[in-house]
Description:
Blueprint: E1 57-63, E2 72-74, E3 77-84, E4 87-93, E5 100-107, E6 128-130, E7 133-137, E8 143-147, E9 153-157, E10 173-175, E11 178-183, E12 190-195, E13 201-205, E14 216-220, E15 223-229, E16 233-238, E17 244-249, E18 262-264, E19 267-271, E20 277-285, E21 288-297, E22 308-310, E23 313-318, E24 324-329, E25 335-338, E26 347-352, E27 355-360, E28 364-371, E29 374-382, E30 393-395, E31 398-402, E32 406-411
Antiparallel strand pairs: 1-32, 2-3, 3-4, 4-5, 6-7, 7-8, 8-9, 10-11, 11-12, 12-13, 14-15, 15-16, 16-17, 18-19, 19-20, 20-21, 22-23, 23-24, 24-25, 26-27, 27-28, 28-29, 30-31, 31-32
Amino acid sequence: MITMQRLAAAAAVVALLAPGAFVPAAAAQDWTQWRGPNRDGVAAAFDVPAAWPDALRKQWTIDVGSGYATPLLVGDHLYLFVRQGDDEVMLALDPATGEEIWRSGYPAPFEMNPATNPHGPGPKSTPAYADGRLFTLGMSGIVSAFDADGGELLWQVPGTPVEPLYHTAMSPVVDGDIVIFHVGGHDDGALTAYDTATGDVRWSWSGDGPAYGSPRVMEIEGVRQVVTYTQANVVGVAVATGELLWRRPFTTEYDTTSQTPVRYGDILLQTGRGGGITAYRVLREGDAWTTEDVWHTSEVALHMTNGVVSDGVLFGLSYLNSGQYFGLDLETGEVLWTGSPRQAENASILRSGNTFLSLQDDAELLVVSASRSGLDVVASYEVADSVTWTQPTLVGNRLYVKDISTLTLWTLD
């Protein structure tokens, strides 16, 4: 059960930030894509504090523009993809001071669907960094590649006339010398692999339109494949060729989902609003691919919040009961515990060791010690003056928080 009053440090806590001065980023600390270095919500590069303080130290706050893209930290550059007026802009900042190193952008005016007004004009897609290049997906479907050193626009593909109902939100993934986007609209979308150097299309699968979640690349049954939600399915597509290997029909109350696939051992999780959580296996016999259900629960379900795995347990925020934290046994599908209801509409959850850091949309950061028996809030901090839908970037002794229009560096000294 959540104990909001517990603000003392726990011995098992793994840190968000470490005591001491600002620590320069090392290669092992680079935050290069959506949900962290391995795209799984694990932030292993935190240092361990002796105790959590009463408050974090604010180093700087700067106005940057709107959007929900996670800041990327690569070496001595902090990258952020935002909207400024009618332009979509890539910024390179000094991670220690917030000073601008370079700015590059392009015109990207568009009209929002009225249903998206509460969430602003984006962009919502987090860039991907690889081999000195930054890859972005704009709110209206514009695909771009920037030189990470100087900001030069290397290549660009315009958006399609039809886009998803709530615009684009998936975050691209790089695998070798290709970068994979799901572009287009509900009925004419295509999962597309572009050459990272030239922007040439290497392959395209047009079997279904994009969802609002982001893909992951993984090896299943000896074949490297991109696994992603689409408008009406979950699919596995061969990374080498773009061939559809398998699909599972899947829709939600909102027609599609905002989830990134979760893998645990040989099972994958399928979840979305109104659908509970289902574990399934992908099976191969010769050239034939199938999937089979392993377990299902309707007690909890993920909607916009992505869950994080630790020691065979999925920790997440169910949209049921107006936002309720839970722990779920991934072997059996048993819901081990649920926290108090009405916690948040959305939370960006990251893990280091057995400690979870959950940035809720109301700008409250919870430091949570979780186990199979429950969770305790070890510390909590207010880290912004407006709503926080952006996943934070957590490295060393630093926490970069983006709210509606500003970016703030918090440290723990």
